[in-house]
Amino acid sequence: MEQQDKIHLLLSLQEHPENYTDEQITALLADDPELAELAEQLALTKRAFAKREAEHEQIPLDDLWEQFAEEHADEFDTPSLAQQPRATRIPLFGSQTRKIAAAFIGVILSAGIAFAAIYVARNASRPTPQTVPSEKPLPTKPATAHPTDTIGSDTTVTTQPIVFDNVTLEKMLPEIAAYYQAEVVFTNDDARQLRFYFVWRHEETLEHVLNRLNRFESINLELRDKKIMVK
Amino acid sequence: MTKEKFEEIYRRHYPAMYRLARTILYDADDSKDVVSEVFTRLLRENIAPQEDKIEGYLMTGVRNKCRDVLSHKDARERVQKLYLAEMMPKQVVFIPDDDRLERLMQFVETRLSPLSQQIFRLRFLEEMTYDEVSQAVGVSKVTIYNHLSQSLRQINEYFSKETAKR
Lengths: 231, 166
What we know:
The structure holds two protein chains of two kinds. By secondary structure, chain A is mainly alpha-helical. Chain A has nine helices and five strands. The longest helix of chain A is centred in the middle third of the chain and has 29 residues, at 97-125. Chain A is flat, with a radius of gyration of 29 Å. By secondary structure, chain B is mainly alpha-helical. Chain B has two domains: 3-87, Orthogonal Bundle (Rna Polymerase Sigma Factor, Chain: A); 98-165, Winged helix-like DNA-binding domain superfamily/Winged helix DNA-binding domain (Arc Repressor Mutant, subunit A, Orthogonal Bundle), CATH 1.10.10. Helix content of chain B is 75%, strand content 0%. Chain B is built from eight helices and no strands. Chain B has helices at residues 3-25, 28-44, 54-71, 75-81, 98-111, 114-125, 130-137, 141-165.
């Protein structure tokens, strides 16, 4: 096929993709590297145009932020420290002891509520850590030990969290897996090159780490007897 | 993270994140959604990234999210909207750098006639039909086609030279 014919074919594919099945388009591009290259060059040019357009676009930051803040209003942390000094000043107000007492109760109540709110928020945002990591062997513990003795976090030394910044899954996952004496099996090779920003703490259980990783939409991990399957 | 702290991060990084998404997904609303999702994830992160890592976190988040959006499109939509094949999961991950796009745009602006550029923009960016472009520009459909075809040939030549240089 001459170059002119390829250009013609590409333009017609682009204009009327409904005339082809998905398989036909995929096959056409796979069978003809030059056609695929042409398509890529056209796409890259569209991208260059889009980039130029976006650079000149006005972004209504105020509106966008307002909308975002409204949608996530209950997810921000309360600046708890800033409120404390105000509470101590309140008793100075009233001269009557009763008033002071009433104010005090009020302070205690609102402080209690605020504390409860913070507590609830913290707990909600942080999944409760598993007390007994299943992959750590426990046979050394005597059977008569009190339940409190088996809490892992008391006995393990807490280490600094590891920050993976823009690291491929191929590099990051085996490193994490090794710590838990697990193995990584990539059944999906495309996933190897995915890059992530991820913070990992040693005290987390492997299940917890995998759960958090699975929240990235592009990956799907499954644990099968000490093997992490990447799908 | 407190609201004040988050607002600062949001305002500082939003424009670059949005522009990156726009360059990949083209659609303004899709791009806003992606940026919003990445910010939401940051907000829900148990341990916030360190100050100097936040930009990387956010930009990588946008790239991955865009890849994810594109991976759900079928081949027909990809060729119609001209999504870049490099963004497809089957391809090796490679993000064209800003310089490369900038040089390409300089070539387009200096070597393609203003009419050719306008037709390219209306047809591929505004997604007008040949009929609509023809009416907007005031030339026949055949002329529209010839301009697009000629532009593609020139772009192809540009890339051949670029590759030869390396």
